[in-house]
Structures are given as C-alpha cells and as structure tokens.
Amino acid sequence: MRKLAVSYVGRPVFWLILALPAIKLVWSIAAAGGLPPRFLNQSGEWAIRFLLITLALTPLQRLFRKSRFVHWFVRRRRTFGLTSFAYAALHVGAYLWQSFADWGPGAVTWILFTATNLYAWSAWLAISLMLLLALISNGTRSAGSGAGGSGCSA
Questions:
Q1: Which of 87, 97, 105 has the alpha carbon at shortest distance from 36?
Q2: Cα separation of 28 and 38, whole Å?
Q3: pLDDT string in tens for the chain (154-residue length)
Q4: CA 15, CA 19: separation in Å to the nearest integer?
Q5: Which ranges of the chain would DSSP assign to H, the alpha helix?
Q6: Which pTM value belongs to this model?
Q7: Cβ-contact 77, 59 below 8 angstroms
Q8: Among 23, 91, 128, 151, which one has the highest count of C-beta atoms within 10 angstroms of its own C-beta?
Q9: DSSP 8-state code for residue 141
Q10: Rounded to an integer, what distance in angstroms lies between the CA atom of residue 26 and that of residue 35?
C-alpha cells in the first residue's frame, strides 16, 4: 500500500519537473511583453530533447534489461512522449503567434508560402503525427503487446 501512495504522490511532482522549462518559457513571455527572440528555438529544442529521450528508452531497455533505473524511465515513456508533444504544441503556437504578429492578415499566406519548404513540411508532418499519437495515447496497454510486450503505461 505504501508503494502505491509514493508513486501516486510522485506523479504530480514528476509532471512538475517536466514542466519547469515550459514555466520558464512562459515566464519569459510575460517578462518581455511578447515573444522573446529565442523563444521559438528554445521551445523547439525542448520538444526535440523530450522526443529523443522517449525514443532512446527502448534501446536502453534492451541494453540494460536488469537496470531498475532504466526500467523506471521506461515505465514513464508515455509521459515523456506527451511532454514532447506539449512542447511541440507550444512551439507551433508560438510560431503562429509570431507569424500573425509579423504579417497581420497576410500571415495565412506567409504560413502557406513557408509550408512549401521541405523543413516546414517535415515540421507539420511531425506535429501531425505527434498529435495523432497524443490523441490515441491512454493509460492501458495496447491489445497487441500482451503480457510479455513492452507497452508499459505511465
């Protein structure tokens, strides 16, 4: 019973730790009275960092099968993935905000124009796939993972 109470209390603290960079980013908006110059870079970098952590967990799990430390992170893989999506959504929101602030009514045209570039297509595809994964993510195991699968929930 005590172990359950510790993990339940630990989950909000874990989410708070993952949100610390976002809190700092949002605070920088309030302090600057608008988007700071490096906001887009920093929000995108945090999205990539959490995505890389999420993707690195399976190879780490296979390399260090008996490591309790790695297993602790693997059990929170969904949380890291959702955190990555949250930072990516913050990044896209900031991009749209900056586009409308810079271009006004012509922002839609600007966004469509930049969408013809390869880097923009890859970004819109990535956020679309992350949105899909975030929408279908839930706390239960997938049907195909079975008892021996690695579909751990956070």
A1: 97
A2: 10
A3: 455 444 555 888 899 999 999 999 999 999 998 899 899 999 999 999 999 999 999 999 999 999 999 998 999 999 999 999 999 999 999 988 888 888 888 888 888 888 788 878 888 888 999 999 999 988 665 544 544 444 444 4
A4: 6
A5: 2-32, 39-63, 68-74, 77-103, 107-114, 118-136
A6: 0.79
A7: no
A8: 91
A9: P
A10: 9
